[in-house]
Amino acid sequence: MPQMKEGFKAGLAFTIPTLALGASFGVLAEPVMGATAAILMSIFVFAGAAQFGSVTVLAAGGGVASAVSAGLLINGRFLPMGLAMAPALRGGPVRRAAEAQAMVDASWALAQRGDGFNREMMLGATIPQAACWWAGTAIGALGGSLIGDPRALGLDAMFPAFYLALLVYEMDLRVTGTSALLGAAIALCLVPIAPPGIPVVAASAAALLGLRQR
Amino acid sequence: MTATWVTIGLLTVGTVAIKAVGPVVLGGRDLPPRLNGVVARLAPALLAALVVVETFGRGHELAVDESAIGLLAAAAALAARLPMVVVVLIAAVVTAVLRAL
Asked: pTM for the full model?
């Protein structure tokens, strides 16, 4: 369990951005679906970007089919991410499926270590993030009037900064920098033409540069 | 209201399935060693894509607004090796101040 503790500690670094993003989600979702549904959505769906994507569709008057497909496309990145961490999980199919639910971007990225995927690290790092995501949603959904406009507070700038920090501090960019640049380029080129979510999923193709290496 | 609950239900089932499919289908088998280099590059490629899409993407449009300057400020803070929490707060504060001007 020491590595789970280490993961938990590492996950604590994400509490502020996760709380802020959860609050922004609560503020966005409350007028669309009410506070209870917003909080339950954060508990059950538990995937920030997808929740934003599908609530944005609902808020614009879109139907269930487009709201669900928007969310699922954004979650498409969890397919390659799940394949990459599969060998590290434990137990039978049910337990593996359950452990896989702890996969969120930051924990998954942190758990990528030079010597392979660290399952305990991911599970530990997700605990504080889950608590903050749920608490943040509740704060935003119930106290939205106190927060005001999340954009005016710059809350939307926190997550890109947070992903950039993970990229710079946790990744070995001397080896993987080309894939990072290529991934960003693929995503930017696809934003104008592909449905939301697809640009990020397609960016994973940049990792194929690793096939050349033995 | 029904539409909300159906959306939440379907999104929950779909997300659980997407997260589970790799680990369940592959089981405990190791990936072929020639894929090790690919796996190591997956996180940097996805993180970099998330950074640019969340900063510049607005639906189908690309836009540069105050949050791009916030991101630049964050990059400067990273270059100065400041702690992650400080980096994230700098991005928010710079963006908020620029928007208030």
From this structure: 0.87
